Amino acid sequence: MRKLWFNNIFSFFLACPAIPYAEGCPCNDNVTLADGSPRAIRDLQVGDLVWTISDDMKTLVLSEVITMLHNVRNRIVRFHTVETVTGHRVSLTSAHYVRVSHFEYLSASQLTLNHSLYVVDKTTGNIREARIQSIKIENKQGAFNPVTLHGTLLANGIFASSYANVFGWSHETFQNMATPFRLLYYLTKYLGIHQAIWTNNDEFVWAAKPFLYLDNLNYYIPFTSMII
């Protein structure tokens, strides 16, 4: 039972090639780097510091990119393009999570015009809620899914998750499941090899696959989740 639970936890992160679709944002959506400059999501590198919003939704914080979970460059992918009354616009695959006022995280396909998203005001730089004014389905090239230490980022100024609604698991569940990856990232960064280990040049992340076969680590995730 414990072994099955362990393997299920890693299946999303480590067995992505079995998933016949991609998750994330298209190649031309942007994040904001620590110095305030924009960078296309497709160009993010391991170790980049990007702006996101704190868990209490009160302040902007920096979070480090640890890997590109999906790196799909040459495929046409269907997106839900969401625009708010403030002029913020982001494209997300149907299952990708975004933070919604009063609803925690919902997948893009669950969004309606009755929902409000958290955005960074283009004039003041303050965090605010913004009502969705339009949602349309578009086909765009590429899908890129950066994962940060916080499990969130600002995509075109809209607060979004690093995770998608796969297996029916919540954003919070995925962030807890990623605990071993964060620990390993810290270790590889300390050793100065994090760029080589976590840079993903393939369609799906591969670096942690060997852990699937380490049966003696069946207890590892619940143990680390309790102490982190």
Automatic annotation (TrEMBL):
InterPro entries: Hedgehog_Hint, Hedgehog_Signaling, Hint_dom_C, Hint_dom_N, Hint_dom_sf. It comes from the Eukaryota. Pfam families: Hint. Residues 23-121, 124-168 form the Hint domain. The keyword Zinc does not apply. Residues 1-24 form the signal peptide. SMART domains: HintC, HintN. The keyword Membrane does not apply. This is Uncharacterized protein. GO terms for biological process: protein autoprocessing. Keywords: Signal. Transmembrane segments: none annotated.
